[in-house]
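hey m, so remember when u said the tokens were messed up on ur end? i reran from scratch. heres the input so u can diff it against urs
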Amino acid sequence: MSTDSLALLRKNAGQDIAALAEDHLKHDLQETDRDALKSAASKISTHVTIGSIVGLGLGAFLAFRLRRTRMQMFNTLRAKEKPTHVKFADGREEALPDMTPYMRPSTFGDVAAYTFFGFGGLFIGGETGIFTGSASAGRTISQDPESRERIETAFRRFRADVLRKEADSLDTRRGVKEVLGL
């Protein structure tokens, strides 16, 4: 499993791309635009962190509920009187094995439940955090229409430079991973 699968652990782009982005931030944007972008990035980071923590907590809670329900079902089945023999129509009688030990909740099952529910909650919470953080960041950037236009223009120029750099690397037979610094 790649660390890019979890929103909380995703890495940034390579050093060359980061330097190119920093260059566009300095030359294409005003100070207020840079502050708006930093605020938007901070909102995304905050939402992802909070979403991941809430998702992890929710996953642990659901695993706890599942474990408790399994234990209650086991105790209920153990307390009930169970048939010990089956009598067939021809009069033959067969003993039924006791399945209680096989139905008992195990430590391995508990660990698996907490692990999978925890990772599932972490994943869903982090992705929800990216979604809500992106929406919040978009609203932050869109507050000032002039600033938004400058940011969009700078981003288009940045994307064009990245594509030019990628095309140059393909022409020189370097791999895309080397260009992007991955």
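this time it looks ok to me. The longest strand covers residues 85-87. if urs says something different then somethings off w ur setup not the seq
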